[in-house]
Every structure is written in C-alpha cells, then in structure tokens.
Amino acid sequence: MSESRLIGPVRVVGAGLLGTSVALGLRSRGIDVILADASPTHVAIAIDLGAGRAARPDDRPQLIVVAVPPDVTASVVAAELAAFPEAIVTDVASVKTGILAELAASDADVSRYIGSHPLAGRERGGPLAARADLFAGRPWVVAAHDAISYQRASAIDDLILDLGATLVEMSPEEHDRGVALISHVPQVVSSIMARRFLDAPNAALGLAGQGVRDVTRIAASDPDLWVQILGANAAPVRDILMDYRDDLDRFIEALGDPTAPGARRKVAEELTGGNTGVERLPGKHGTDKRFTTIIVMIDDRPGQLARLLAEIGEIGVNLEDLRLEHSPGRQVGLAEIAVLPEAADRLTDELAARGWRIAG
Ligand SMILES: NC(=O)C1=CN([C@@H]2O[C@H](COP(=O)(O)OP(=O)(O)OC[C@H]3O[C@@H](n4cnc5c(N)ncnc54)[C@H](O)[C@@H]3O)[C@@H](O)[C@H]2O)C=CC1
Ligand SMILES: O=C(O)C(=O)Cc1ccc(O)cc1
C-alpha cells in the first residue's frame, strides 16, 4: 500500500463508475472509504470489489465525494453538507456552473463545498466498470469560487494528487465553456455520425477501420447521463454547434461544384485547419514534443506483442505510446509504436534486422 496525502475517512456518495473508481483508488492507498448510494445493490457490488465499507452512524468523514448524476448533484451535495457539518464536500459532475448556482441560492454552507471534474471516464457506467487507475495522468478540474475557504479545500487537492491526476484550476464558467468544446460537442458529433450507420448496408460497415472507430467510440455512451450533461451545458454547446453548422455549410457549398475555380482550395483550407487544430491537443508529454510513429505488423499468434515489446526494450528505446489495430478475421495486427524522432531510424532498422515487418 502506498502513502497518501488524505487522512480520511472519505465518504463516496454514488457508487457507480466514477464513485467506485475514486473509492478503489483511495483504498489502494490504504484510506478508509465509506460507500453510499441510492441503490443498495451498487453499494454491495462496490464493497465486494474492495472499494470500501458501508456507512456507520458514528462516521465523521474528512472529505465527501459526490458522484451521482448531474440533475441530483446539487441536492445530494446540500444534504451531505447538512449531515456532516465538519466535512469538505466536492462533486465530480461534468458541468459546474448550474450546480454552484443552485447551491448558492439555497441555504447550504458553500464555504465547505468546491466542485470538481475529472476528465476521465468510460462509455459504460455502474460499479462493475470502475477502475482504480481511471484518473492516473488525467486532468482534474477544481472549479474555484469566492465563498470557499482555501485552507479547508486543500483536502480536494490531496484527493486529486492521491489518485494520480493533475490538478487544473478554473472558474466554473471557464470549465463549462472548455468541456463544451472538448467533451460535450464531440459527444454530439460522434452520436450523429454513428446514427448514420443505422440504415447503412452491412457491406459498407464491414469496411470500417480505425479512423471511424476513433471518431465514434463515445457514441456508445449512456444516453441518460448525456441528456443531463447536454441540458445542463446547453448554451455553450449550442454556440459551438452553430459554428459547426457554418463549417458544414462551407464544405457543402464547396462540394456542390468541386471543379469550380477555388473549390478545391476551400476544401484544402478546411482540412489543413484541422491538421493545425489537432496538433494543439496536448500529447502524453505536453504540446512541445511530437513523436514518430512506427507501424509493425504482428502475426495473430499468442505472445507476439509481448515479444515485440521485450525486443524494443532490448534495443534500448523508450516506448512513448502504443496503439493496436486488429481487424477481426485478419491474420495480422498492426502495432503503432510512438517513439522520440531521434530514436525512430535505429529502432526501425533493428526491428527489421530481427525479422519484424515494418508497415510504415
Ligand atoms: N461517465 C463518465 O465518463 C464521467 C462521469 N462524470 C460525472 O460523474 C457523475 C457520475 O457518473 P457515473 O459514475 O458515470 O454514473 P453511474 O450511473 O455509473 O453512477 C451514478 C451512481 O449514482 C447513484 N445515484 C443516483 N441518484 C442518487 C442519489 N440521489 N443519491 C445517491 N446515489 C444516487 C446511482 O445509483 C449510481 O450508482 C455524473 O455527475 C457525471 O457527470 C464525470 C467524469 C466522467
Ligand atoms: O471516454 C472518454 O473519452 C470521455 O471523454 C469520457 C468522459 C465523459 C464525461 C466526462 O465528463 C468526462 C469524460
């Protein structure tokens, strides 16, 4: 068990994906975790998973993490603030402005509340989808507000650091505009795109490669949760969608007569704008380092990937990232290996010399 900054106990309300993942991460650091949920079955499953224990009447939690759906978050936070007058309370809901406004308008003691949001999740909800390492290396926003007592709020910083996440401070408004762009609108676009597959011929769907899977992965997300998130962040999401409507109109117009003078330039401008935009997304080590990707073909036999990784280790090159592409029914998989540019040529040569087939 590793050292922790938090002392505990930590009470987690909402033993679903997020709550159980927080609880598992804290238990792995030896912290006493109390689990509560409107669903006794979710509490029981989370306890069976080793995520914590049931509540006792004499519990005096240091920190309470509310991980329930957005539409009940403010009322659950208010109830927890009232029930535990010494505890600091945070929540992990995906939208921040409305929850703070609802609490500020109530008689809740907001000097002990500070909202937060880990930018980590999965398409599936519930305790069985939880993972102790869900937050490792991910940004976790703390949505600062004027009424909080900063000395007491340090427990939330400790929670974030104990779970291996990176603390990011933002105002609730700045947070909601940011997540509209990088999380909420992508969800809408992904869902709209995947909806087009409903009446597509099987033969066309059979051609799907990694690109379309990348852009539609989150189309599998829980509609109940997303109806709430989009409703709670409607204005910033609409603003961006209206800009997208203009973008689409430009594309549609340019493709109306693709051979007309200037049409190809317009299409190219849209595409190169995307190239520049995607480069701005921070990678594993931030924005300033780009890696070179080497694609190695691996036979679909047990142990091949492990052998490849072991040999990269023997060659002495550090693996910065790894992605696997595997098409069902094909006898080979593709391992995309990201390394520092200065190591790429040597790794390519040495892997080829050891008999690996380099695809690109
Ligand atoms: N799913 C994701 O990828 C992410 C979700 N979030 C946020 O985390 C929160 C929880 O989401 P998930 O864990 O995905 O949902 P989930 O559906 O897996 O878990 C929610 C849990 O809250 C319980 N619950 C519902 N109403 C309750 C109430 N009134 N009192 C006590 N428990 C109640 C449910 O029984 C369930 O166990 C949401 O606010 C969501 O916006 C934040 C980051 C990522
Ligand atoms: O699966 C992913 O990549 C996600 O982006 C999940 C996610 C869903 C909701 C959030 O508020 C934050 C993260």
From TrEMBL:
Write down the Pfam families for this protein, in alphabetical order. Answer: PDH_C (PF20463), PDH_N (PF02153)
* GO BP of this protein: tyrosine biosynthetic process
Q: Where is the ACT domain?
A: 293-360
Checking InterPro entries in the record gives: 6-PGluconate_DH-like_C_sf, ACT-like_dom_sf, ACT_dom, NAD(P)-bd_dom_sf, PDH_C, PDH_N, Preph/Arog_dehydrog, Prephen_DH
Coiled-coil regions, chain positions: none
Specify the Prephenate/arogenate dehydrogenase domain's residue ranges: 8-289
Keywords on this record?
Amino-acid biosynthesis, Aromatic amino acid biosynthesis, NAD, Oxidoreductase, Tyrosine biosynthesis
Domain of life of the organism encoding this protein: Bacteria
EC numbers for this chain: 1.3.1.12
Enumerate the GO terms in the molecular function aspect.
Answer: NAD+ binding; prephenate dehydrogenase (NAD+) activity; prephenate dehydrogenase (NADP+) activity
Q: In which pathway does it act?
A: Amino-acid biosynthesis; L-tyrosine biosynthesis; (4-hydroxyphenyl)pyruvate from prephenate (NAD(+) route): step 1/1
Q: Which reaction does it catalyse?
A: prephenate + NAD(+) = 3-(4-hydroxyphenyl)pyruvate + CO2 + NADH
Stretch forming the signal peptide: none
Q: Give the UniProt family note.
A: Belongs to the prephenate/arogenate dehydrogenase family.
What name is this protein filed under?
Prephenate dehydrogenase
Species assigned in the record: Agromyces tardus
